[in-house]
Specification:
Blueprint (H helix, E strand, L loop, with lengths): L12 E5 L6 H11 L3 E3 L2 E3 L13 E3 L2 H9 L3 E7 L2 E6 H9 L3 E5 L2 H10 L4 E7 L3 H11 L4 H15 L7 E4 L3 H16 L8 H10 L3
Parallel strand pairs: 1-7, 1-8, 2-7, 3-4, 8-9
Antiparallel strand pairs: 3-6, 5-6
């Protein structure tokens, strides 16, 4: 009886971006909750926590001084200024996860997505989430009740800039129905896990398979 193939794979980076209010955070959190091999990359940010957020869960909330120190130490995979605050992805935990075959999800803006993809193109799958309309996006931002009206208007202005970046992504989903958008996102993730690049055990397995007697 032939030996079974070893379970050996390299993890992937699933990058999800969208304008604020389009649903990427809700979709990301559900996918992480339902996929045991997928973990959320927790970014550092200089902004203050929103109601209900906890340090180390949604973000690592750090001072601007600490953030700049981490930049000098090259501790980030990417970092950017977004909505007047600094955001960055810690490098070490992500690289360790990939080497151990675990997948990492990134809930980040297009600047971070492009930076990560340029540094590790073979490890990244990029998904952009679109709102069904700008009116729906405005309503979601107001219903969220986390920002002042002036901040919401700035987010809507920035949303148009972000939406124009959709051609840079591998997949684009319209979140007009949450359950459907989630099912499509889950299918993308499952398919990405099965690519040849993610499963280096396949080559040796095929060699052994071809060497067996029929």
């Amino acid at each position: 009886m032939a030996a079974s193939a070893p379970v050996q794979r390299r993890g992937l980076m699933l990058v999800i971006s969208s304008p604020s209010g389009a649903g990427k955070t809700s979709l990301s959190r559900r996918l992480v909750a339902e996929q045991p091999n997928l973990e959320l990359s927790v970014s550092c940010t200089t902004r203050s926590p929103r109601p209900g957020e906890e340090d180390g869960r949604e973000y690592h909330f750090v001072t601007a001084e600490r953030f700049e120190t981490m930049v000098r130490e090259q501790a980030f995979l990417e970092h950017a200024l977004v909505h007047e605050h600094l955001y960055g992805t810690p490098r070490e935990p992500v690289m360790q996860a990939l080497a151990e075959g675990r997948d990492v999800l990134f809930d980040i803006d297009w600047q971070g997505a492009m930076s990560i993809a340029s540094g590790a193109p073979e490890d990244v799958v990029r998904v952009f989430i679109l709102p069904p309309s700008m009116a729906a996006l405005r309503e979601r931002l107001h219903l969220r009740a986390q920002d002042h009206p002036g901040v919401i208007e700035r987010r809507l202005e920035r949303a148009r800039e972000e939406i124009r970046m959709w051609p840079e992504y591998d997949y684009v989903l319209v979140n007009d129905d949450f359950e459907r958008a989630y099912a499509e996102l889950a299918n993308i993730y499952e398919a990405a896990r099965l690519t040849r690049a993610r499963n280096p055990w396949i080559g040796p397995f095929v060699e052994r398979l071809l060497g067996e007697d029929g």
